[in-house]
Amino acid sequence: MAPNGSSGTFSWRSLFADQLVENKGSKQVEVPVEEALQGKHVALYFSAHWCPPCRAFTPQLAKTYSKLKKDGKEFEVVFVSMDKNQAQFDVSAGKPQPPSTAT
Description:
Layout: E1 6-7, E2 10-11, E3 19-24, E4 27-32, H1 33-37, E5 41-47, H2 52-70, E6 75-81, H3 86-92, E7 101-102
C-alpha cells in the first residue's frame, strides 16, 4: 500500500471518511484511515443492533479477531453500523466489543 493509503488506483479514503473510530482498551479514539488500515488485510462487517443473526455472529467474530491480532496477523475488520442513530450503535457496539475499527 502506498503511503497515501492507496493500493494502486484504490484509496481507502474513497470508501471511508478521513478518520475511523478505533477501540483502544475501554476508550474509542479517532485514527486516520491510512493509519488504521495501511498494509493490512481488511474485512468490512455490516451489522446492526436490530439484526439477530448479527448479534449472534459478532461475539464469534470478536473472538476470531482477537486470536488473529494475538498471533500477529495484519488483519483489520471495519465495523460498518447499519443502525439509525448513536444510541442504537452503542447497543450493537457494546459487550462483547465488535472488532476494533468502526465507521
